[in-house]
């Protein structure tokens, strides 16, 4: 069986990072997200994947061209205008063999055993099986109500707190029979969640599989950072030899540098005297952390510079960005590629700075 992974969306909630890096390529513990996806599919016994692409396809394709996938096939279906989630699946049809398929949203990190979902689907007469997971605050999601016999009973889009009847949400992992692909019109935008599933539900042919395995989507800065913390902490995909202090051998920290695990420091990083890196941080390739700077609970993509005395805490810093001397970036702030935060600025409360923006130094003489 093959999988279709939807990686064609713009990832607008994860901007400004996704202006330059497609959501499928954002790093978790210094590995592109799509790697976790491929491992997930392989562990589920699938033979290959068709990537349904649209927005920023090249970095994903370039990445896989460098690897030998050892018998696991990867095909690319690139749409020239957005086809939506169902349209994107339809667009992969030429690479499929006409049998049932697994479909996964390209921003889902899951510890689910795919083989179990496939087996349950096969036991039923459903045209589609949709995996559900429970979340703490369901009001931000589309909820899915299920009957006692696991047929989907009702969809509830982002309900008010007093309308919440379940905390089960669509986990973005499906098994679809070929009849479902056949009913999707080609070449136009169609949503699987809003158009196809409600139709199948009304026909009584949509089944649910409720999973209690680890699940997180990386679609927002908050959930991306949380997924990064989980992966660094070994919560998901842990092996016996999991290394909580993953520091590339090319990195020689200067005197007085504190590295507090779990942490991941990629190739070519320079950690200067008295810098502290920890609290579940990941530093991409070639980052420079200045004297006495502090990086905590954050994701730094490649070639980020944190100047002396600066603080980066619980935030996401895009590739090539620079945080000036004594500046503070905290509180789930997100900096776009190549932006420069001048000396002494304080960014807080989820502020987002677009790629290339330059904030002048803030006078320290007040
Ligand atoms: P937001 O813009 O932040 O909502 O993110 P998104 O673009 O990823 O949209 P959403 O999270 O709703 O999409 C779920 C999955 O479907 C993601 O993995 C997207 O990459 C993918 N997706 C969304 N729209 C399209 C599309 O038009 N074509 C294809 N091929 N995939 C899509």
From TrEMBL:
GO terms for molecular function: transferase activity. Pfam families: GMPPB_C, NTP_transferase. Keywords: Transferase. It comes from the Bacteria. InterPro entries: GMPPB_C, Mannose-1P_guanyltransferase, NTP_transferase_dom, Nucleotide-diphossugar_trans. Residues 261-360 form the Mannose-1-phosphate guanyltransferase C-terminal domain. Residues 2-232 form the Nucleotidyl transferase domain. Belongs to the transferase hexapeptide repeat family. This is Mannose-1-phosphate guanyltransferase.
């Amino acid at each position: 069986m093959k999988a279709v992974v939807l990686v064609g969306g713009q990832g607008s909630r994860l901007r400004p990072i996704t202006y330059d890096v497609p959501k499928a390529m954002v790093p978790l513990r210094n590995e592109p997200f799509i790697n976790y996806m491929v491992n997930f599919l392989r562990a589920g016994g699938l033979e290959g994947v068709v990537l349904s692409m649209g927005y920023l396809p090249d970095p994903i394709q370039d990445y896989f061209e460098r690897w030998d996938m050892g018998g696991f096939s990867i095909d690319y279906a690139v749409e020239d205008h957005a086809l939506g989630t169902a349209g994107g699946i339809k667009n992969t049809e030429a690479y499929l063999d006409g049998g049932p398929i697994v479909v996964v949203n390209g921003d889902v990190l899951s510890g689910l055993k795919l083989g179990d979902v496939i087996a349950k689907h096969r036991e039923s007469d459903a045209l589609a099986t949709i995996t559900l997971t429970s979340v703490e605050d369901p009001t931000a999601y589309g909820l899915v109500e299920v009957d006692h016999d696991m047929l989907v009973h009702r969809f509830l889009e982002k309900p008010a707190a007093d309308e919440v009847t379940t905390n089960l949400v669509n986990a973005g992992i499906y098994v679809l029979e070929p009849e479902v692909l056949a009913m999707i019109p080609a070449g136009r935008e169609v949503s699987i969640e809003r158009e196809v599933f409600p139709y199948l539900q009304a026909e009584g042919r949509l089944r649910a599989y409720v999973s209690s395995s680890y699940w997180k989507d990386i679609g927002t800065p908050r959930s991306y950072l949380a997924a990064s913390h989980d992966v660094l902490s070994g919560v998901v995909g842990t092996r016996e030899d999991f290394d909580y202090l993953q520091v590339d051998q090319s990195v020689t920290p200067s005197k007085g540098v504190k590295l507090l695990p779990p942490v991941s420091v990629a190739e070519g990083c320079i950690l200067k005297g008295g810098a502290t890196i920890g609290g579940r941080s990941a530093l991409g390739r070639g980052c420079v952390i200045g004297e006495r700077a502090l990086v905590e609970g954050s994701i730094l993509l490649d070639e980020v510079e944190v100047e002396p005395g600066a603080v980066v805490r619980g935030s996401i810093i895009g590739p090539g960005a620079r945080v000036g001397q004594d500046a503070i970036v905290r509180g789930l702030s997100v900096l776009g590629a190549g932006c420069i935060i001048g000396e002494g600025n304080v960014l807080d409360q989820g502020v987002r700075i677009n790629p290339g923006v330059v904030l002048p130094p803030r006078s320290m003489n007040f």
